[in-house]
Design goal:
The protein has 213 residues and is of the alpha/beta class. It has seven helices and ten strands. The strands form three sheets. A six-stranded mixed β-sheet has the order 7-6-5-8-9-10, with helices on both faces.
């Protein structure tokens, strides 16, 4: 769900401007999953640009207040959500924790790092959501720790049908600052892609596993 179109388009512009997102329909990337993709996204690059970092931090906090009120804790998902989550928790003046991709192999073998209490309201922070699988592992870990997950906020998602289904099945409300549709709209307007690319880009989003450029 997008809460503000102007904000979504502005963040899409930023991502394109700093090449955090690259669009190459005619020369696709290969993801770790083996999928061919016309898009590559690395939102960690936003942290290197103070103006953009600030805008995104403020967008996150606005969405959290609009959608989830006043959470007691912010939880970042390793690794992309850790830095963003810490910035947001600082902005809100509340505690920060983060969730590992897997339990630590030594010491306390923690899955969740930081101090928290059972029953606390927590909002989960991601930088990017694709299928939602890794993000929901973090939600599951927080729920197993008896925390009350209010929802998840991310910078960007691709809008895959499988991600929506996974989020609905897990009863996790995902809100994103920007998304694939707004990115394509802005990329076309700014000349990063042409009208002739739109059909291929739409086909990829509908069935990325079978897409061929």
């Amino acid at each position: 769900m997008i809460t503000n179109k102007d904000r979504a388009l502005k963040v899409a512009e930023f991502l394109l401007q700093i090449k955090a997102v690259k669009l190459q329909p005619s020369n696709p990337f290969t993801w770790a999953s083996g999928w061919k993709s016309p898009i590559y996204c690395d939102n960690r690059k936003t942290l290197s640009y103070p103006q953009i970092r600030t805008y995104i931090r403020q967008a996150y906090t606005e969405i959290i207040r609009e959608e989830f009120g006043s959470p007691e804790v912010i939880a970042g998902v390793a690794t992309g959500g850790i830095a963003q989550g810490a910035l947001i928790a600082q902005e809100l003046g509340i505690p920060f924790i983060y969730v590992r991709s897997s339990a630590k192999g030594h010491g306390m073998q923690n899955m969740i790092e930081g101090d928290f209490m059972e029953g606390q309201n927590v909002v989960v922070i991601e930088d990017l959501v694709s299928t939602g699988g890794s993000s929901l592992k973090a939600v599951e870990a927080l729920r197993e720790a008896k925390m009350n997950v209010k929802g998840m906020v991310a910078i960007f998602d691709y809008g895959f049908k499988v991600a929506k289904e996974n989020m609905e099945k897990a009863k996790c409300n995902l809100v994103t600052i920007s998304d694939y549709d707004h990115l394509i709209e802005e990329a076309l307007k700014l000349g990063y892609i042409n009208e002739s690319d739109l059909g291929s880009l739409k086909e990829w989003r509908e069935d990325p596993a079978k897409w061929k450029n």
